[in-house]
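Format notes (please read before filing issues)

Several people have asked whether sequences and structure tokens are stored in separate files. They are not. Every record keeps both together, in the order shown below: the sequence lines, then the token lines. Line labels are part of the format and must not be stripped during preprocessing.
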Amino acid sequence: MPEGLHPVLSRVFHLRGVRDGRELDHSLRRLLPAQGLKGIREAVSVLVEMLRKRAPILVIGDFDADGATS
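Then the structure lines:
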């Protein structure tokens, strides 16, 4: 864990299975390559088609990281 981390955060991270401070790095350089995302080619094709048609596009974000959208 990073030095100087508050003890409460240290305990929370430990209980969540975080073993290395590098796991807390959420910078862009740590993103997986887009080519590795399942269905990315199909998604891009649909997006391009909708942009060409000037169709409305709805973007839904799930930011609580539980894997479910409401």
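For reference, the curators noted about this record: The radius of gyration is 18 Å. The chain has a mean pLDDT of 85.
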